[in-house]
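Let us practice reading a record.
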Amino acid sequence: MLTTSTSEPGLAVFDLDGTITRSDSLGPYVLGFLMHKPWPARIWRMLALARVAPTVIRFFLRLADEGQVKSAFIKATLGGATRSDLDAWTARFVPQLLERGLFAAAVAQIVVHQRHGDHLVLMSASTDLYVPAVGRALGFAEIICTGVRWDGDRLDGELTTPNRRGEEKARCFTGLREQHPGLAAAAYGNAASDLPHLRLADQGVLVNGTPSARLAAARAGITCVEWR
């Protein structure tokens, strides 16, 4: 099991989806919310997914980015939902995720850093609809994630921050190091898109990476591990 390389407390930054959780979290969050709706509302929301198709096509034509696809998906499925409804669903979803959806090795590594006194940061491209609740439940001191806009008490779904992915994560990681000067930093991610910020850490760790991501990580001096 990996630990920080210094006896002094440091900075430990964890990605969420695929690093701590066994899979994507936004899809199950949305699907679970829809499945708890009455049939008419559920069908209407499912049919509304067709509205995402133009943005997906634009994405494959490189005319839209991942953040725009994410926003279109949220608007189509959750747009107009009330804050109280989504808060109630988050209160049900997060305990279910913690109980069945996490890598045991990820939880153990979080505990290692907590016992070491490290400053724990959860940094995820997933949204602030539920990521802060996950982070608080796992004992993270700081949470950085993608923000979504509200129109009063109802969800709009437009992103209020850059999509916290790729180079944007690297920018956030650089900001964290500036906020915590002198601290040795460990960072954990699972995807090729995490490599930009893993390269900036004193101890970058790629979790369950694809063969191509593992090859790129090895070339950059990033440790590769398998978590179950």
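A brief commentary: The radius of gyration is 18 Å.
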